[in-house]
């Protein structure tokens, strides 16, 4: 009897050990299994690239990239993006994306950075107009102009300053379309602004017929202030003094009151007289 119990106990122990070993084996097998990764290629910048730089075999290359990890707008082959210009600065090993490149027919340099429907207009600047050289490519500015109102009346100052453009991007400072990496100011005789055709005409008129001033603004500040114009006569008038009337302002005159009408009858004679109404 004891011998049978011993055999049964050994059999049960062997079965438990066998089941345990099978469980452990399968657990380790699942834990150590790694799904194979299929690799492809992706085009990246081989060197740092500035705005307007055309891509060629010297400044781009391909690197391994998981085929399952698709990057929207990326390129698999160098020949698909060679000849196109860069619209934004790129660092080494940065993937080249469709959104970073100008159309192939746009060419290279400054023209490639001008979006369709926009214009690049250059204006003369100095240390004051150019905000001490801090108006550099990529910054945002407002454009103010000072001129004289038409129909100037003798003895009346009709000079006026108004903001004609707000939140305008600077494309180039001189012939540079890329700002200094350290943000250093650039003293240049001209700056080029990105505007639409209508604003291009306004900017040209302001720079030729009056004086312009650029106001530097924070690149993340996109709010439109639309400040009112400032008249010289109002700015320098004594406090509380009203602005002088415009020489062509219409003067409204009040009509005099109608006269009194009195009818006088003397005997058979009838007479009418009028008297001024004070």
Q: Would you kindly provide a written description of the structure presented here, covering whatever features stand out?
A:
This protein is an alpha+beta fold. Among the domains are: 72 residues, Type Iii Antifreeze Protein Isoform Hplc 12, CATH 3.90.1210.10; 121 residues, no CATH class. The protein contains three helices and ten strands, in the order H-E-E-E-E-E-E-H-E-E-H-E-E. Strands 3, 4, 5, 6, 7 and 8 form a six-stranded antiparallel beta sheet that branches. It has a two-stranded antiparallel ribbon with strand order 1-2. Strands 9-10 form a two-stranded antiparallel sheet. The longest helix is centred in the first third of the chain and has 30 residues. It is elongated. About 3% of the residues have low confidence.
Q: Which helices and strands occur, and which strands form pairs?
A:
Blueprint: H1 2-31, E1 39-45, E2 60-66, E3 119-124, E4 140-148, E5 159-173, E6 190-195, H2 197-209, E7 211-217, E8 230-231, H3 232-235, E9 260-266, E10 269-275
Antiparallel strand pairs: 1-2, 3-6, 4-5, 4-7, 5-6, 5-8, 9-10
Structural class, please? Answer: alpha+beta
List the total number of helices. 3
**First and last CA, distance:** 147 Å
Number of strands: 10
Query: Shape, please?
Result: elongated
């Amino acid at each position: 009897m004891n011998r049978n119990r011993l055999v049964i106990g050994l059999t049960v122990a062997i079965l438990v050990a066998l089941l345990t070993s099978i469980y452990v084996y399968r657990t380790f097998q699942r834990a150590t299994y790694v799904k194979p990764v299929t690799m492809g290629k992706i085009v990246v910048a081989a060197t740092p690239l500035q705005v307007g730089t055309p891509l060629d075999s010297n400044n781009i290359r391909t690197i391994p990239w998981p085929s399952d990890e698709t990057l929207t707008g990326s390129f698999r082959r160098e020949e698909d993006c060679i000849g196109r210009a860069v619209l934004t600065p790129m660092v080494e090993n940065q993937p080249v994306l469709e959104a970073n490149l100008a159309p192939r027919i746009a060419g290279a340099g400054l023209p490639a950075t001008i979006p369709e429907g926009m214009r690049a207009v250059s204006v003369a600047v100095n240390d004051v107009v150019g905000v001490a050289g801090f108006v550099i490519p990529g910054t945002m500015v407002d454009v103010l102009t000072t001129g004289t109102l038409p129909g100037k009346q003798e003895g009346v100052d009709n000079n006026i300053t108004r903001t004609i453009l707000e939140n305008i991007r600077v494309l180039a400072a001189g012939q540079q379309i890329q700002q200094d990496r350290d943000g250093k100011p650039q003293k240049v005789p001209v700056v080029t602004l990105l505007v639409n055709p209508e604003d291009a005409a306004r900017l040209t008129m302001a720079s030729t017929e009056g004086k312009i001033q650029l106001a530097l603004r924070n690149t993340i500040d996109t709010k439109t202030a639309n400040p009112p114009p400032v008249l010289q006569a109002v700015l320098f008038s004594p406090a509380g003094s009203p602005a002088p009337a415009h020489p062509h302002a219409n003067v409204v005159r009040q009509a005099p009151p109608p006269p009194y009408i009195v009818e006088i009858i003397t005997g058979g004679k009838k007479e009418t007289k009028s008297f001024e109404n004070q």
